[in-house]
Amino acid sequence: MKVLVVGGGGQLGTKIVEQAKDRFEVYATYLTRKPLLNESKILQIDKTNREGIVTLFQKLKPEVMIDTAALHNVDYCETHKDEAWTVNVEGTRNVADACKRHNAKIIFISTDYIFDGVKGNYLEDDAANPINYYGVTKLEAEKLIAQTCSNYAIARPSVIYSYVPSTQRESSSGKPLNFAMWLTQKLRNKESVKIVTDQYSSPTLADNLAQALLKLGESEKTGIYHTAGGTRLSRYEFALKIARKLNLDEALVAPIATHQLKQIAKRPLDSSLNVEKAQKDLKLKMLTIDEALDQLADQIARSEII
Question: What is the fold of 2-160+205-229+273-287?
Fold first, then answer.
């Protein structure tokens, strides 16, 4: 199987490439961080470059394309709406059109933020109602993929995290690459942090998510899948579990309510996802928080000291 990973140098793209490169013929695109592949299989390209995407697909003719590239910084998207739309919607349109033209399966990574957070434990067919612009752009991208392509899968994770080397922990928009590594650095530096107690989600280990995406690539399954962690918990509970698992000082983690943070973009208060469909159809365990943090702790132990 020939797989193209768009955004192959990011947190999730790196995990996909790691898991796929010995099993499939893998190519990857990047903007700033080079994917961990042979130079002949990596290409620097922006997915908003329509002509470049067309040429890329004509050259590679991938059977499966996994699109991880997006502007993920929720507050940045709220204050840079034109840029967010260009990347998250128009850029996605470019790769969707190319997939349709070349009969490639498109796997698109969406988000739990397409929901308003009123009820939580969302199913795939629950009504979407984003309350921030990032969610708006990702929902629009979902719609255009469904309208453009017949062979597609939309994967919705929640709060993606994993071990990331210290040199790669900030995104191009200034956002920490993931909450777990940001928190770990803060606590190792003996810095206190304020973490919200009233925002619930389904934190997703990037390694587990990459497994699910590759399963979708191999299978004939199409449509929407919630590919998130198997545990619903608040961001504060998540922080305490990380601190305990890594033997860090949980007393440095202070509770705070969402309204006290004054975040630029609104956050859904409970965007947790029900993952039963993905587990059943893909025959894959979406890890509980304790199982995932065991893996994270092992990754940290085997890598450089943070």
Answer: Rossmann fold (3.40.50)
